[in-house]
Amino acid sequence: MTDRQDQPRGRIFDIQKFSLHDGTGIRTLVFLKGCPLACAWCSNPEGQACSAELVYSRDRCLGTSECDRCIEACPAGAVGADADGKVKIDWQLCDNCGACVCVCPPKAFEVSGELVSVDHVMRVVEEDSGFYVRSGGGLTLSGGEPLSQGEFVRNLLVTARRRGLDAAIETSGLCRWETLAEIAPLVDQIFYDIKCINPEKHQRTTGVPNASILENFRRLRRSFPGIPVIVRTPVVPGVNDTEEDIRAIVEFINAAGGAASYELLPYHRFGEAKYGKLGKIYPLKDIDPPSEERIIALRRIAARVSS
């Protein structure tokens, strides 16, 4: 089936099926590129930039003694060899043209960030419609920050609603209020991240202030009290893992009108390997995940959120 040419396009970096943790039932997650935050603990660094990016998996490389097609193909001279005979990338020179992707036999290169239509996404999502019906599942938009592509997300959610699909969205809340207000009535659930209340700490660990994030949450609860909002906090040692940190978030949520629930997500390092593939340094390489005892104690405080 040919996609309609008049549809808005959006840039995504993954579609993940059979998720059980991002909304009710069995869900398909669509990950959109572009995020105004740069959280030190981000597990999807490929979702931060709005544009397509080169990804290089060194472990797949055959070695330059076996193959040097990528070196010859790179018009920017960004591909060379390291001391171990593997390909290395000069990320300052790389312009993400993708020439190396086309010539690499073991697919050590790929471009993250495909420009797709609403029809394309819906075709993939609806492949599992039978699972949604039986489990109460559906579509969840994640990222990156989905609301950084507001027009595309709105069209996607309008189509999902027209076809009877349950829809949820995961957001940092850092967007224009008008965008959030336009999207909210089109979803059945909103997962809203609140990292910490302290503005200086938020700026230092995410790269942005949190004033508009908190204000958008207040307005969301006032304007759409009937929409279930699940607040989430990634618990990161040294950032927001004290009882005072979580208590401050609970007090803020309750003062703003409460939430359907409040979830604490223990920090993990599952995304660490992605940073090297993008030519980036993982910021929290010396930080260990919080202990189970610490999470249990913090969850007792989180349970005080009013619904």
In words, what does this structure look like?
- The structure is a single chain.
- It is built from 11 helices and 12 strands.
- The chain is an alpha/beta fold and about 300 residues long.
List keywords for this structure.
307 residues, Alpha-Beta Plaits, 2 domains, 8-stranded mixed beta sheet, 32% helix, globular
CATH class of the largest domain: Alpha Beta
- Mean pLDDT over the residues: 96
Derived structural class: alpha/beta
**Total number of domains:** 2
β-strand percent reads 15-25%
- The CATH superfamily name of the largest domain is Aldolase class I
CATH topology of the largest domain: TIM Barrel
- In the CATH hierarchy, the architecture of the largest domain is Alpha-Beta Barrel
Overall geometry comes to: globular
User: What is the number of helical segments per DSSP (H or I, 4+ residues)?
Assistant: 11
Note the gap between the termini. Answer: 45 Å
Please estimate the helix content: 25-40%
Largest β sheet strand count, sense and barrel closure = 8 strands, mixed
- The string of secondary-structure elements, in order, is EEEHEEHEEHHEHEHEHHEHEHH
Number of strands: 12
Low-confidence stretches: none
Whole-number radius of gyration?
A: 21 Å
Read across the widest sheet, the strand sequence of neighbours is 7-1-2-8-9-10-11-12
